[in-house]
Every structure is written in structure tokens, then in C-alpha cells.
Design brief:
This protein is mostly helical. It contains six helices and no strands. α2 packs across α4.
Length: about 190
């Protein structure tokens, strides 16, 4: 449940908010002359912003009758060629708001990006340590199974209990110590 929430938040921020903000900066700093490109970039900026607010607002508004139909009507209003509501919403609501808080948003996104990278590295290191430990545990298990199946020429009639007692005991909490014990016991054979 928590993993799904974290994934949803990351998709929301990295999939919608960040691209929409970068698109906003590109449009405003470069002053794109192509009217159609500007219109669709504005559309996607608004869709990104709506998607962000929708993830939280759906909890409170989704119970309203015709809520889904109202969202659909809003999207049609945004791109319908005769109305082109994108320009109206962008110029009157979104542009003044983002322009006012642009530096704060930029700083927050940079901090979030740094924290997300640190978190990714932390989890990568933990996963590799756990993977290495499990791999060593598997090798130790295979080595102990292969020792059980070998026949020593000196005593072919060893019973299983004495053969088991001659194999090293593996302490699963200390994998490196167990590996060293296994190496020492193999040198003695």
C-alpha cells in the first residue's frame, strides 16, 4: 500500500509536474513564435497541473455526481478549436501563479531531485548487499550439499551422521565468516 502511494507520488512529480514546469520555462524564456506549438505546450502544462491537483482533489470531489463528466468537459474545453480555453486558463490563472512562485518551485524541485537520487543510491546499495548475502548463502548451501554426496576413498562406509558432523556448521548471520570456514574445511580435505 505504501509502495503504491510512493510510486504514485513519484509518477506525479516526475511524470507530470516536472515536465510541465520545464515546458513552462521553455515557452516563457524562448518566446516560441509558432502559435500551434505554443498552444499545445500550454495545453500540456495545464494538463500536468490538473493531474497534480486531481490526485489529491479526487479524494474529496470524486463522490460528486457527474464528476467524471465534468473533468471530460474541462479537457474538451481546453483543446476545442473554436473555444481554445487553454489560452484563457494559461494567461489568466496559471502563468501569473507560476511566474510568482517560479524560484520557489525551481528550488523545491532541485532539492527533491537531490533527495530522490540519494534515496535511489541508498536502496541500490542495500539491494546489492542483500543480493550478495543471498548469493553467498546459496553457494554455501550448494557446497554443503555437494560435500554430503561425495565419497571419501579412506572410509566409503561412513554413516550419514559422522559425515554431517565433519562438514562445517554455517552461521547464517555471519556470511563472510561462514565462507571463511568453508574455505578452511575445503583445504583440509
Amino acid at each position: 500500500m505504501l509502495g503504491n502511494f510512493i510510486t504514485s507520488v513519484l509518477i506525479l512529480v516526475l511524470g507530470y509536474a516536472y515536465p510541465a514546469f520545464e515546458c513552462f520555462k521553455t515557452i516563457e524564456k524562448n518566446k516560441v513564435e509558432i502559435h500551434e506549438l505554443r498552444f499545445w505546450c500550454q495545453y500540456w502544462i495545464i494538463v500536468g497541473a490538473l493531474r497534480i491537483f486531481e490526485s489529491f482533489g479526487d479524494l474529496f470531489l470524486s463522490w460528486l455526481p457527474m464528476y467524471g463528466e465534468a473533468k471530460l468537459a474541462l479537457f474538451i474545453y481546453l483543446w476545442y478549436p473554436k473555444i481554445k480555453g487553454t489560452s484563457h486558463i494559461y494567461d489568466t490563472i496559471l502563468k501569473p501563479f507560476v511566474a510568482k512562485y517560479e524560484t520557489d518551485i525551481d528550488r523545491s524541485l532541485m532539492e527533491f531531485r537531490a533527495k530522490a537520487w540519494d534515496l535511489a543510491i541508498y536502496y541500490w546499495q542495500n539491494c546489492t548487499e542483500i543480493g550478495q548475502a543471498k548469493f553467498l548463502q546459496m553457494l554455501e548451501y550448494i557446497a554443503s550439499q555437494s560435500k554430503r554426496g561425495t565419497i571419501h576413498p579412506k572410509s566409503e562406509k561412513q554413516d550419514e551422521t559422522t559425515h554431517r558432523s565433519s562438514s562445517p556448521t554455517i552461521d547464517h548471520k555471519d556470511f563472510y565468516g561462514a565462507r571463511a570456514k568453508l574455505r578452511r574445511s575445503n583445504k583440509g580435505d
